[in-house]
Amino acid sequence: MGFFKKVFGGGDKGKPVVQRNALNLKVGDIVSYDLEDYVVIGVLEYNDEGWVWRDYHLESEGKHIWLSAEQDDELYLGIFEKIKMPLEKPEKRITYDGVHFELDEASTARITVVEGQVGARVGNEVRYWDYCDDEEEKFISIENWDGDFECSYGFEIDPHEVSFMAGS
């Protein structure tokens, strides 16, 4: 196949190109955010009684973040980083880095999709607690994986702040 056919198409007519968005990313895809490109190295899909959201494990030059995507009446996106918090059990109010957070939601979800580096298996159940600050601009997410607590700190971003490119 010639160079121009590879670049401009015409070579693989059997496979349509799928436009990537925050709800269909795959391992190997690229997420551009805050002037940096991240590779999707893991995908988790959660289901809480029909309520579905996806978390993407992203990596750029050794830096790891998570992109959370949830479709409600509109698309909600958040950027999260894992943090260390001394925690025996989640409370109604917690403090992190001098900021107070109130419990917003708590429930249990089942993992329905696992791809790449995420440390979970399809069928795993996770208990979670979501907190927000008084201005609802900063968030803490706590997950209990079989007795091990994982904590993440994050904030909501506008869908226009990110772009996606199929890499797989």
Automatic annotation (TrEMBL):
Pfam families: DUF4178. Residues 26-159 form the DUF4178 domain. This is DUF4178 domain-containing protein. It comes from Metallumcola ferriviriculae.
